[in-house]
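Backbone shape codes:
===
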Amino acid sequence: MAVESPPRAGHKGAMDAPSPVARLAGATTRRCREELLAARRAALETRDPEGIHRARVALRRLRAACGLFAAAEDTAGAAALPAADIAVLRALRGDARFLADSCGPTRDLDVFIAGAMAQAAAGLAAVPGIDDSLRAWRATALRLRRTRHDSARRALAGDVFAAFDTRLATTLPAPEGVDDATADAARNFARRALDRLHRKARKAGRKLRALDADGRHALRLRVKKLRYAATFFAGLFDPAAARPYIEAAAGLQDALGLANDRAVATRVAADIRAAARPKGRLDRIGGAIEGWLAARDADPARADGEEKALRRAWKRFEAAPLFWRVKAAARGAAGDGEWT
């Protein structure tokens, strides 16, 4: 794994003579790092699980940024960054994925306990003699939750994270002033990148109603990458004009994520059942909860409501102005320099 080999002492990073695109990559990853370190502090210094969730999101954003710039192309279709820069970004992307995956199971369990599990317990509460079984189920879920929280915190506090952060910090170009030519070059790159990502998302969703679960999941991932990129580049244009587009993309991503949420809930319920001590103790209540969730998800009225909400989200996304193609009357010096 790449994070096990930290940079050599005195290493200046691959981007020590940065082009406008390299400087934009450095500025973007630097902001992601700041978000990550703030979330990590919250995760390690408090017992609030929100810190772990924020760290996971920051790692996902960082991974998306590294992937975006590693695949960057210039106007001629060639790589926009030197091979050494691309290699560093790809290594960071892999490391960010590993660390985000270390935080994933605890977040899935937190969401399940607060949402699907609470709903199922309320739905089953009238069943005679079920109270003790529900209490045993909840106790096992909370014990598993503590185990997963501790595992996530160990990942964020360990040597793997330290080596990853060292590499990330030494990769970033130092902040510099931005002249008009540099800002224009960065905006031109951002326009090309956003055009490409937007085009791919629209193509993938062209026959939305006919998409199966796998197709909708693939579309959701495209929309997520697009939303992250739009967030990264909003400061190059007009952040206020970018907001409707970013919100529309977020709404579409949420609507597309409902099927994935159901699959995660089923998996987490199975994890809680498997964590029972002694083994098999929760099989009966686990089957009841999983059956209740399956019946809820199969409700035609619920499915129809979700489908209508998805179509509304898609229409809103299609109607959102492409902020990177809208000419701003004046950006001002602050807008041009936000990304440094």
